[in-house]
Amino acid sequence: MRQKQVNETTTRFPKNMSSQTKIETPADHIDPDLQLVDGPTLLQRLFPEQCRPTHRWLQTQIKRKAIPSTKIGHLRFYIPAAVRGALEKRTIGPRSR
User: Fold this and answer.
1) What are the DSSP calls for the chain, one per residue?
2) pTM confidence score
3) In angstroms, what CA-CA distances link 64 with 43, 46, 49, 60, 71?
4) Which candidate, 28, 59, 26, 58, places its Cα nearest to that of 45?
5) pLDDT tens-digit profile of 24-56?
6) Domains of the chain: which residue ranges?
């Protein structure tokens, strides 16, 4: 089997672009709170480490329809800003005496 020789001039970048140049994508301009994230990332963004709930708690909240989520195929994603808003609606204020 012959191996294909790679030419030194063959690169993944156009000639006028160095490998250090960052290519901007549409996702670079989206606020991180509005991007779709998975469950562990959502919990990291919303809760400090010392009081972070478990992934099981998150699944329970989804089943109760307390937290909005989007299912794509067999994967579930969340928008952190929407989840934060849903959790704030459920916040219990001080008792009136």
Assistant:
1) -PPPPPPTT--SS-TT--TTPPPP-GGGGS-GGGS-B-HHHHHHHHS-GGGPPPHHHHHHHHHTT-S--EEETTEEEB-HHHHHHHHHHT---PPP-
2) 0.63
3) 17, 19, 24, 6, 16
4) 58
5) 666 667 777 788 999 999 999 999 999 999 999
6) 30-89
